[in-house]
Amino acid sequence: MKVPAFPDTDLPQQDKWVPYLAEQAGEPDENLFLIGHSLGCITILRYLESLPAGKKIGGVVFVAGYIGDLGYDELKNFFETPVDFKKVRSHCDKFVAIHSDNDPYVALEQADIFKKELDAEIVVKHAMDHFSGALEGEKSCTELPDVVSAVARLISK
């Protein structure tokens, strides 16, 4: 398991993050399972869009993910084009999206988009904010067993 530290997190750029994810992921195959939090979710979607035809990964777990621009100027570069969900689904067909019912940044309606566009299994947690931690003034979320069980469900599908 890898937990990569993405470059330039103060000013994230899709054209740097997606290739970095590709490098960290290595050769994509059905044994590759990706877990993303917040901006990492759209990064995974953009990565899936970039894969060549015929490449497929095992599954994806999104935590506090979103599909559309949330209005933060520094993140707009990830949303200049709509997500090509058909292409995403051609590279992965197993998704779980975990959301909090009180996330101050990501509206719970984002879960509906993951369900509609990716047929993702939706898990809604109570009062988990943005699943972040002390950096964002939240109670620190350092463990999320739901991610482990989600990956286990994806593997068994």
Protein described:
This protein is of the alpha/beta class and 157 residues long. The protein has helices at residues 14-25, 39-50, 85-91, 109-118, 145-156; strands at residues 33-37, 59-63, 95-100, 121-125. 31% of the residues are buried. The model has no long low-confidence stretch (mean pLDDT 93).
Topology:
Layout: H1 14-25, E1 33-37, H2 39-50, E2 59-63, H3 85-91, E3 95-100, H4 109-118, E4 121-125, H5 145-156
Parallel strand pairs: 1-2, 2-3, 3-4
Helix pairs in contact: 1-2, 2-3
DSSP strand content: 5-15%
CATH architecture: 3-Layer(aba) Sandwich
- Give the low-confidence spans: none
- Helix and strand element order: HEHEHEHEH
Structural class: alpha/beta
Kindly state the number of beta strands.
4
Q: Quick check: average pLDDT?
A: 93
Terminal CA distance: 20 Å
Taking all Cα atoms into account, the compactness measure Rg is 15 Å
Name given to the CATH homologous superfamily? Alpha/Beta hydrolase fold, catalytic domain
Number of H- or I-type helical stretches: 5
Just give the CATH class: Alpha Beta
The largest beta-sheet arranges its strands as 1-2-3-4
- Give the biggest sheet: 4 strands, parallel
For the record, the count of structural domains works out to: 1
Estimated helix fraction: 25-40%
CATH topological fold name: Rossmann fold
Shape: globular
